[in-house]
Amino acid sequence: MMTNVMSAAYPDLVAAASCYSGVAAGCLAGSPGSSPISADPTCANGQIALSDQAWAARARNMFPGYAGAYPRIQTLHGTADTLVRIPNLDQQLRQWAAVKGLSLTRNNTNTPQSGYTQI
């Protein structure tokens, strides 16, 4: 979970990051705890639905005024995770695509191997 937060809060110190079954930066904002077990479950369940630009604003607001490049992000998420659900992958992808000015238009199925999709 902290990969996305650290990448958004310290983009000047992070060149690249890899997130495994995480949530978008700012998803846990205002939650009573910082882990999926103690936090508001709507985040881990993938039920916080924001626009791409709203997710991007949450990330950018972690370092107001920052005008440099944001880190490269690799995010992986399995469909069998019952604690941090798969909709969080989409929210992370949309957040970082908006922060970096990218579009999510290409899906490569069975890449890097059978059963995986590279987005």
Automatic annotation (TrEMBL):
InterPro entries: AB_hydrolase_fold, Plant_Biomass_Hydrol_Est. Keywords: Signal. This is Uncharacterized protein. It comes from Verticillium longisporum (Verticillium dahliae var. longisporum). The lineage of its organism: Eukaryota, Fungi, Dikarya, Ascomycota, Pezizomycotina.
